[in-house]
## 1
Amino acid sequence: MSYASTCHCGAIGATISGDLPAEAMTCNCSICRRKGTVLHFVPAGEATLEAPADKLGDYTFNKNAIHHHFCLVCGCTPFTTGTDPQGNEMVAVNLRCVPECDLDRLKLTAIDGASF
Ligand SMILES: [Zn+2]
């Protein structure tokens, strides 16, 4: 099975192999608190990105380790990309952009990203 996280207009997105997760993370860092993302991290090899260069916004800050992608057409953030502390390429899926994900049933873990 797979599931897809897509922006509102469909220009960008990520298709993830595997089942929808039952758990996700919220984060209080300066960008997550503004965007309200609900994140699930997967190895980059499990994600197929739809990311045309003329539609993909890329915002970085701090150590520029995470690419906070967004759609240049509709503004949504279906995924971000980056590397974990071990250097592995990761994709953070924003489960708010997965229509079939029941957000109210997710077990959420709050990450104190503001202190990183
Ligand atoms: Zn869009």
Note: The longest helix spans residues 32-35.
## 2
Amino acid sequence: MRDEYTWTLVGGDLALDLCNTRSWRGDPDRNIERLCSLTEYDSWREAVAQVHGTELPAVTDKAELARIHLLRDTVLQVLDTRAGDREASGDATRRLFEMWMSTLSRCTVSNSVPMRWSIDPTRSTAASDQLTLHCVEVLSGNLDLVRRCGLDECSWYFRDTTRNHSRRWCMADECGNRYRVRAYARRRK
Ligand SMILES: [Zn+2]
């Protein structure tokens, strides 16, 4: 049994904090899945409620957890493509669009403008549906301030809301420090 992980939700947005449930993505030896089990999802859900004030539905079966993994990994592919890591093939955006269409079939729409849609609770109580709506909203909006941590092996995403938009690290005292120590060692060589 793994030690309980303390969530640090520094993405500034639920969609980005979902992406950050994989740690050390840029390092194949350390790459860690943080949402392995329903218990881990549950503790993440609690952290999300505290940090973002969003009440996500509970997840009670592994198939639903797998849908959340697929959504997250698709969003990561879209963002990594944007960051220049991958050739833009359009596959990831198309997959996300299909997930969104499926979710929309379980939505209801407001009868006034501006049009608003939300999950129809009689058709779905799935966390994956709620997360899909949110992720698409973020990815179809302005991404200018969405950045990836400057430490390549970390590769967490965050929204830079600093006044002069100069944030480079998910956590300055972790990744920023690690980067500086390494740069210093390189200079000494
Ligand atoms: Zn980082």
Note: The chain is about 45% helix and 10% strand.
